[in-house]
């Protein structure tokens, strides 16, 4: 237990070659259990031994009340192309006095005033713009009449904007956040869409970070479980732009830069714009970008720059910055991930800068599907003097701040966590697995490179991974469009690899993907059925082009849709991944990630609530939707139940709400028992039962939670006995998947990759056993690790997306156990009688059984009738032959 003062190294990595001066930095830092009590404080020390103003916010606590995760905010300096080390010192009552500008946030009636020491901003509830006032040195510079957010319909008629609520979301000495919630409404007052805006302010600066989310809260109608563009639940609009208007004085001028490291340019154009129409990549016209009519509306490759209608420049990929000076003040602006989220426009018109988040220059209206949203981040910088836009280039290349891999390991916030430089170099299979994993971010065929194959860019697609494994059998034509939608929790795997290695590319991958998942892959509505509200959409249907379903799995354009009326589906428990979003929240403080974890956990609870279904008043038993895996009626160990339990555990970890833990334990008891007849589970049905290992891994995670709480009670004993019961069965019955590929429908490279999950389960079992049994589990884990790596590499397709993802989220566990061992888990505190397994009777169980019985009976009667007709026909033919 760390009870004396200590220091944590904080590394700031600069990769863009840009000198940093007072750049805002936000990062989450884990702390060891028992290390820091509330009476302690933190100091941040820069490389020159100066004390740096610091803001610290609690994110999570250990069960003993000590801090587990904290969020740091500070303003940092860093030299280009270097890693700069700060030191976070923790101890009792530091006495150093730090003087610096501090934020002041004041509530004024229905409005909020934020004084950064450099500028004063006023935000009004019920207003039509973000600011009602901006002052520099007491002088009003804001032109309300020429400012605000504008959303227009297909004929350029603006929707009215209503800000329903303005609230201070966070308030500290370095950064304050004001949240605005509102809606856009048509001329009849009907809701068109909703928005959430977060304005972040920083001490001593005129910087404002604006995060704006536009959401369609309506449900999609998704007939037959098909989720195509053009659904009646979609909304359409032509333009969404933010205008920043300044009061005019004289000497109007502006500067602009379209790409990094370009020299700033200026001009006297009345109307100037940088417009990105497509990605600028080699496949900029990819079918990935089809609209509801199956047409790709992209007009030209890349971006163009125009002044008063005259073409000034053009290029492929813009990351622009513009600044406007009016004599009274200067404002500079940019939008993060500008070209990646095309179409985009950055424009100067008169005395205003206009940020075209969804610009009307695009050759189509924009469609937000039911329950879909999109978030953009823009930066504004206000100042009295001319601003050199080159000083703002860092905005598109933010500093990546982190602790060291050793620190993450010492805190034990990740299970089985070992820094990559501590892996045994002599282990051949570990080296091969590491090479496979690292190919996701190193080399010439990384996940970043694979975006180019189908042009995985644009506002709806950027951040997702290309599911290249779905196109492996494609022989000709354009690349199959397939989206991965965070299958097997890439966000979690990438963040673990980032903390293990310190390689910032892993964080960039996770950052882009987490934002995409939160916006596009989650169904943001409460107006559909509880079984799908708030759910996570599946990846693209196997070996099928996404068509006009985008990231929603099932399209009417699929050949299967034409063949079968039963084709289709929607969000379901087998595709519900929360742990990556949980750690993304801890590492960044993202409130959107926090909300996403809770949304997905609540979805688990709601989908299982029988009272919400039609005729639910007749039978209030659970629906079973939260524990269903692969086949109707199966509620044993599987990934559906495993993902549901995992989501509930993550929500409990995040909130401390006991209802999530109680529901998780209820599902555990439903799906597994220490005395299960495992043979009846038919786990050797590889095609349908392979994912029982997912559930057992989650059971190990649950046991770790109970150990941390020192809650070695009935449920601890129950889960532990269940895990060991199944693990012992694995010792005697499991075989590498490559040896049973004749049992599966499609024998791909993914099957040997999934063997890595057996390694994880066996290490969990070793942790909860001793003696010869423990050694048997460890030996078998090593056997399966070797088999998984060797068998996977025997496939020429081993570097496809899916096998790499499976490895990056699981293989590190074996490395840890080889070096440090699994540890020894404590025994339960008592002896318990678990009784005997009781089969789960889900809602309308008896009716479904009767329906299935009748179907089987009708099938047998039809078969009997066919045979009778055949025999009768045979007899008639024989008689005719005799007569002849």
Molecular structure report:
By secondary structure, this protein is α+β, with helices and mostly antiparallel strands. The chain is 30% helix and 23% strand. The chain contains 19 helices and 31 strands. The strands form six sheets. It has a nine-stranded antiparallel sheet, covered by helices on one side. The protein has a seven-stranded antiparallel sheet with strand order 13-19-28-27-22-23-24, with no helix packed on it. Strand 8 (104-108) and strand 9 form a beta hairpin. The model is unreliable at 876-884 (pLDDT under 50).
DSSP E strands, number:
31
Helix content bin: 25-40%
As laid out across the biggest beta sheet, the strand order is 14-15-16-17-30-26-25-20-21
What spatial form do the alpha-carbon principal axes imply?
globular
Gap between N and C termini? 101 Å
Which sheet architecture does the biggest sheet show? 9 strands, antiparallel
Computed structural class: alpha+beta
Content of β-strand: 15-25%
Mean pLDDT: 93
Q: Can you count the helices? A: 19
Query: What is the CA-based Rg, rounded?
Result: 29 Å
Low-confidence stretches: 876-884
Short description:
By secondary structure, this protein is an alpha+beta fold. Mean pLDDT is 93; it is low at 876-884.
Strand and helix map with partners:
Elements: E1 6-13, E2 20-30, E3 40-45, E4 51-52, E5 55-61, E6 67-78, E7 83-92, E8 104-108, E9 111-115, E10 120-124, E11 133-136, E12 139-140, E13 148-152, E14 160-171, E15 175-185, E16 191-202, E17 207-215, E18 235-237, E19 239-245, E20 253-257, E21 265-267, E22 271-276, E23 303-307, E24 310-315, E25 321-325, E26 330-335, E27 344-349, E28 352-358, E29 366-368, E30 373-383, E31 400-402, H1 405-411, H2 428-438, H3 447-454, H4 490-501, H5 504-521, H6 559-563, H7 579-588, H8 591-607, H9 639-655, H10 658-671, H11 678-681, H12 686-689, H13 692-708, H14 714-733, H15 750-767, H16 771-793, H17 801-808, H18 812-820, H19 845-883
Antiparallel strand pairs: 1-7, 1-31, 2-6, 3-4, 3-7, 5-6, 8-9, 9-10, 10-11, 11-12, 13-19, 14-15, 15-16, 16-17, 17-30, 18-29, 19-28, 20-21, 20-25, 22-23, 22-27, 23-24, 25-26, 26-30, 27-28
């Amino acid at each position: 237990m760390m009870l004396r003062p200590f220091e944590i190294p904080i590394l700031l990595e600069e990769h863009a070659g840009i000198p940093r001066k007072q750049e805002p930095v936000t990062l989450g830092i884990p702390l060891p259990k028992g290390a820091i009590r509330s009476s302690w404080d933190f100091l941040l020390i820069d490389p020159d031994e100066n004390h740096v103003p610091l803001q610290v916010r609690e994110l999570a606590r250990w069960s003993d009340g000590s801090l587990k995760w904290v969020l740091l905010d500070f303003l940092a300096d860093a030299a280009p192309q270097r890693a700069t080390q700060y030191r976070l010192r923790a101890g009792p009552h530091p006495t150093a006095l730090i003087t610096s500008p501090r934020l002041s946030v004041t509530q004024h009636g229905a409005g909020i005033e934020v004084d950064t020491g450099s500028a004063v901003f006023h935000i009004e509830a019920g207003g039509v713009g973000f600011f009602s006032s901006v002052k520099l040195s007491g002088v009003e510079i804001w032109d309300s009449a020429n400012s605000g957010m504008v959303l227009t319909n297909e004929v350029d008629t603006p929707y009215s904007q209503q800000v329903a609520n303005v609230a201070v979301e966070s308030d500290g000495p370095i950064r304050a956040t004001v949240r605005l919630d509102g809606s856009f409404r048509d001329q009849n007052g009907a809701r068109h869409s909703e928005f959430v805006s977060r304005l972040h302010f920083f001490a001593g600066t005129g910087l404002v970070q604006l995060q704006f989310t536009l959401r369609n809260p309506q449900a999609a109608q998704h007939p037959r479980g098909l989720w195509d563009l053009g659904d009646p639940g979609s909304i359409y609009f032509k333009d969404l732009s933010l205008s920043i208007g300044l009061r005019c004085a004289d000497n109007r001028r502006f500067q602009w830069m379209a790409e990094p490291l370009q020299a700033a340019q200026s001009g006297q154009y009345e109307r100037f714009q940088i417009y990105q129409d497509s990605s600028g990549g080699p496949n900029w016209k990819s079918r990935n970008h089809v609209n509801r009519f199956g047409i790709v509306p992209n007009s030209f490759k890349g971006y163009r720059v125009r002044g008063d209608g005259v073409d000034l420049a053009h290029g492929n990929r813009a990351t622009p910055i513009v600044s406007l000076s009016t004599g009274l003040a200067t404002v500079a602006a940019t939008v993060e991930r500008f070209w990646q989220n095309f179409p985009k426009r950055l424009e100067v018109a008169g005395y205003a800068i206009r940020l075209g988040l969804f610009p009307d220059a695009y050759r189509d209206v924009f469609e937000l599907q039911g329950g879909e949203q999109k978030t953009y981040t823009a930066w504004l910088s206000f100042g009295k003097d001319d601003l050199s836009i080159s000083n703002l280039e860092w905005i598109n290349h933010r500093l990546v701040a982190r602790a060291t891999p050793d620190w993450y390991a010492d805190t034990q916030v990740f299970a089985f966590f070992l820094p990559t430089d501590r892996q045994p170099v002599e282990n051949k299979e570990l080296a091969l697995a590491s090479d496979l994993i690292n190919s996701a971010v190193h080399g010439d065929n990384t996940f970043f490179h694979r975006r180019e194959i189908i042009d995985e860019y644009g506002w709806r697609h950027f951040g997702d991974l290309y599911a290249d494994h779905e196109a492996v059998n494609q022989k000709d034509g354009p690349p199959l469009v397939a989206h991965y939608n965070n299958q097997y929790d890439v966000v979690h795997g990438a963040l673990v690899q980032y903390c293990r290695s310190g390689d910032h590319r892993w964080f960039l991958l996770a950052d882009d993907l987490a934002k995409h998942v939160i916006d596009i892959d989650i169904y943001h509505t409460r107006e559909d059925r509880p079984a799908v509200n708030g759910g996570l959409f599946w990846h693209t249907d196997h070996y099928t082009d996404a068509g006009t379903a985008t990231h929603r799995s099932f399209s009417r354009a699929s050949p299967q849709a034409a063949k079968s009326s039963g084709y289709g589906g929607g969000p379901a428990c087998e595709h519900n991944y929360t742990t990556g979003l949980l750690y993304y929240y801890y590492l960044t403080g993202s409130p959107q990630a926090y909300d996403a974890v809770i949304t997905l956990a609540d979805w688990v609870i709601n989908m299982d609530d029988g009272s919400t279904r039609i005729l639910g008043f007749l039978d209030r038993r659970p629906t079973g939707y939260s524990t269903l895996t692969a086949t109707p009626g199966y509620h044993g160990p599987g990934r559906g139940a495993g993902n549901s339990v995992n989501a509930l555990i993550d929500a409990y970890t995040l909130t401390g709400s006991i209802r999530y833990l109680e529901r998780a334990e209820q599902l555990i008891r439903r799906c597994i028992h220490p005395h299960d007849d495992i043979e009846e589970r038919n786990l050797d049905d590889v095609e349908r039962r392979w994912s029982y290992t997912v559930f057992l891994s989650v059971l190990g995670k649950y046991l770790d939670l109970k150990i941390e709480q020192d809650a070695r009670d009935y449920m601890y004993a129950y889960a532990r006995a269940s895990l060991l019961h199944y693990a012992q069965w694995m010792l005697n019955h499991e075989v590498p998947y490559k040896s049973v590929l004749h049992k599966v429908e499609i024998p791909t490279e993914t099957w040997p990759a999934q063997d890595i999950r057996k390694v994880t389960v066996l290490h969990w079992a070793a942790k909860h056993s001793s003696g010869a049994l423990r050694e048997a589990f460890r030996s078998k884990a090593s056997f399966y690790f070797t088999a998984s790596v060797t068998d996977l590499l025997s496939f020429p397709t081993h570097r496809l997306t899916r096998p790499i993802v499976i490895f990056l989220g699981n293989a590190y566990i074996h490395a840890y156990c080889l070096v440090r061992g699994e540890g020894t888990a404590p025994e339960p505190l008592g002896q318990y009688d678990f009784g005997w397994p009781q089969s789960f009777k889900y809602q309308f169980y008896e009716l479904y059984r009767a329906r299935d019985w009748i179907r089987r009976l009708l099938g047998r009667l039809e078969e009997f009738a066919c045979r009778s007709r055949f025999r009768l026909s045979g007899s008639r033919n024989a008689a005719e032959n005799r007569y002849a």
